[in-house]
Batch of 4 targets.
Target 1
Amino acid sequence: MFKIPKRVYICDDTLRDGFQHEEKYISLEAKVAYAEKLILAGVKHMELTNFGNPTGLPQFKDGHELMKRVRGSKILQKAGVNWKEIEITGVTIRERAVDTALKAVEEGYGPDVIAMMVSTDEEHQYANSGCTLPEYWREAEKCIKKAHDAGIKLLGTVSTIWGSPISGPTKFEDAVRFAKRWFDIGADIVQHADHDGSSTPDKVYEYFSMILDAIPDPMKQTVHFHSTRGWGLANVLSAMNAGMIRFESTIGGLGGQPANFLDDCPVAGTGSYYYKNINSVGLVSTEDMVLMMDEMGIETGIDVKQILNIGAMMEKTIGRRLRSEAILAGPILKEPNESYKRKGLKERKAALGEKTGQVLPS
């Protein structure tokens, strides 16, 4: 029997994962505006920036100022936003970035959560972090202690669960072991990530069934699907059917690996294979997921109308058609259209017959 929870929890990753793949700089003003709009729409969990070296990640050269402006937003203050209900995450792949984020915390504007990442594939791990898995685990353990000493949480990501773009197939047993290890060394949350869209719904169900047998608490775990091959929402449903209730997404399905260009300048990035189609490597669309959950009677705490409006605005900011179908079709009609109801039966049949080319009996 299909499991439909009463509520799911959605973390919007637009400002970090979404924008890092864009080849044009998204202005600080736009980032602040979207952070405000997402929070006002009901988003409680948000990835806001990356605290890594901005030389390699120039989209996030404004990360500190963005954090300050969002934390000090007069718009959010006027709306009565309770910051105790909001959880802001900053990505910190290495210890130096962790130290940068913790300095921001010390100065009163830093994140509530910092995020680190391990890959089950050693080659992918080295390409992503510049160190081996044993080295990274030692570093992560140190960083967890630093985070807890500063009074914030650490999220540990497990990547290449369903296969590596570098080495190929991987084993679920390794991913389960890595997830358990994150908790063993003190991580507060574990993110299960498919950064390349390699998962299929059947394998998603199989993996999360294994995970929830090993780690039964779904509130301490989150699911991160890229929809590279178009299966993102199907994978969300499969993970939900297995018992997961926390999911990540981006407005318009934006996202992917750090871009190789920013404006007119080549930058480090992470490889050209993501660029066959810039629109095809991002996460599940926030608008599509929120609307789907709403139509299924699942509470998200996010206002559907506002999130659809944000999706429409984002297309203007990015400058191209994005991957949300929800902003085009909107919610399913729950009652007859008012203008249609006002027509008499004869007129409605005549109109329908005109559309179909049939003569309908009166």
Target 2
Amino acid sequence: MGDIAFNLLIFFVILARAEDDSHLQWVPAEAAELQSAGHAQVSVLVDTDNKLYLNGQEVGISQLSGSIEEKLGDAPSGERVVLVKVHRDTTAVRFEPIIEAVSQAGGDLVHIVEEKRP
């Protein structure tokens, strides 16, 4: 019985990572004195080719707010974290509408950056 439970646990962990964006290429911006972002259900990424992705799936900016709101569901405040990963060379013209879409969806925006190292 323990083996079955273990196998089911592994199965669900693998399924939970189905919307992975680790295959996308981007270089984060750098900042000093960073804090951990914690766990998030939603990840928005702008890659090196300036393409927009939501949880690893390419989307248009017009679809972003509704899609984020759908993925966040009825999560309470404080659990509506949206990770925003923007390539370091992306201009404000590209990422400002993303920030607005996260805000419209009621998400708590967390910008992912790397810590500056001497």
Target 3
Amino acid sequence: MKFALAITINLPRERVLEIFDDHDNVTKWQPNLVSRELLEGKLGYPGCRTRMVFNTLGQRIEMLETVISRDLPDEFRAEYSSNGVLNTARNIFIAQTPETTRWISENVFTFSGLKGVALKRVPEALYKSQTRSVMMEFKRYAEGLK
């Protein structure tokens, strides 16, 4: 499954990237994130692996984040794996104007194993909704900092 979503953030690209790259404040725009543990590498850089634990609808979900590439200010690419689902996410940041940034999130989901096959049956709209929700939370948080 592939899809792309985009939002406009009312901040300059440099400020958006500064906030996006601030690992100490991730829980402020990912409210379901309970903990984050660095397993190897440098946070936010290629090869970095992080265990992330989420509490979603009362359910504990562990996810492994692996940073694939960091070509900021243009893009950040990472893989997120959990329970037979692998999401490769490419985040692109475009300066629309000096005061606005377009964030495009391109996502490719692949499924494997019994859990993955079961989760493949979840409607695509749910995956899009979850991704859009995270993006909107980031936008709200970032614009609130100005």
Target 4
Amino acid sequence: MLNVEADKVTPTESGVAEVWTAVLNHDQFGPEDNFFAVGGHSLYATLVIYQLRDIWSIEFPLSFIFEYSTVRELASAIDRAKAEAAESDAVTG
């Protein structure tokens, strides 16, 4: 669960925060909270990536969580990956 006003949260940010909540067993995160600063480590990062893959049906590399370690950064990277996947499907579809 994100600790901000609901109208300022994107659906992707909300989804990322829900995954972090489940994996890290933590109540709330801010959009700028760093995954590793709030208790994340490489094993948890792997679990997060697997859950994100399940939710969005896109292959995310494990490096995503290291490159984009805040809720907001990770959500933005996921949104870009979704757009690229949609573009690729439109071209090859």
